[in-house]
Specification:
alpha+beta; single chain
Length: about 130
């Protein structure tokens, strides 16, 4: 809990930037997984580690956010790309095969199931934000 409170303090002081969501600026991909509660954080960390190591270097990648359900049974990966085309070209990026295999290994190890089949893709149609 102390770590969470420190993160909030840094965020409120402007020392941590959260990804911004803009209308019609980025291409959005969402993947939803079901997982046992004791495996939820391992699934998030395993996929996020591959994003950090490989995918964030792919041309057009903007950000990936991982959302954990309160009951521990679902994970939503919300990723933004500069365009649909850059997302579609990601499989040709260097180390994409390595990242894909590692992510598939994490999903299998955590016995997670994709709820969304493949990924859902979206455009941000409208954003309502509050002033901080």
């Amino acid at each position: 809990m102390a770590k969470f409170i420190n993160v909030i303090k840094f965020f409120l002081k402007g020392e941590i930037n959260m990804p911004s969501i803009y209308e019609n600026r980025f291409f959005t991909v969402m993947a939803v997984f079901e997982v046992a509660p004791q495996q939820q954080q391992e699934l998030i960390d395993g996929i996020a580690d591959q994003v950090e190591e490989h995918i964030k270097k792919f041309p057009g990648f903007v950000s990936a956010s991982f959302h954990a359900s309160d009951d521990g049974r679902k994970v939503v990966n919300y990723a933004q790309w500069h365009s649909k085309e850059s997302w579609q070209k990601a499989p040709q990026a260097p180390n994409s095969d390595k990242a894909k295999a590692a992510i598939e290994g994490v999903i299998k190890r955590c016995e997670a199931k994709s709820v969304s089949g493949d990924s859902f893709s979206f455009r941000v149609a409208r954003v309502v934000e509050n002033e901080l």
